[in-house]
């Protein structure tokens, strides 16, 4: 129940060649929601040609937010007609259906689940998904808005499932127990192993306390050691921790296999405000190549602090 989004083929569906769909409320419901707090606002961009008083033409790229898009669509479809059995039927942008769509969104956005009902959201990721649309070009601008439905659309893509952007899919408006993005397209996501594993995890049908539904891995802690000692005004703390990562996806295992261990280190230091105390910490992470379906990870860290 994500917020509405400007559809991929909104103008095409409202054009003459597909005009029967203009009376379909879902087209209006899928337009960019006006009161949604977008991180990246979907825009309608038009390359338009304008003439000054001297008849000189200039081409400009104009950008419209969802609220301004309504006016553009109203103008572009003001003379839109469909020929049905020899009869021309006017089909302009339907403001009344737009009002119904706004009311539908208002009702859905204000809906709340009963307190005892838990809500989980699984949404698709990793597919290019249309977000904003541009018509015309610098060399072939739009001279008359009535020509707009016949121009080829060029899309600006964001991450999503190919139909719904991640930003919109996550905006369910409910108090979700969890939201997990799964690589997959709009319908195909229902058939992925990752989705079924997440569902079983949430339903406790295959409950594994170490399973992480976000990345579809099982991370098993195999060792944890910590030691502290003081000597000559220094406090030394050492930490050693090891894990094994088990990925169910065969491709993930293949990507982890082979090669040399990956080693990464970091060091930080801090001096107290009074210059009388300081601390230093060093950590090294070693990721070993995958072997027999498992990948071993080691963390070694040491912290040294000195006080006045």
Automatic annotation (TrEMBL):
<dbReference type="InterPro" id="IPR029058">
    <property type="entry name" value="AB_hydrolase_fold"/>
</dbReference>
<protein>
    <submittedName>
        <fullName>Uncharacterized protein</fullName>
    </submittedName>
</protein>
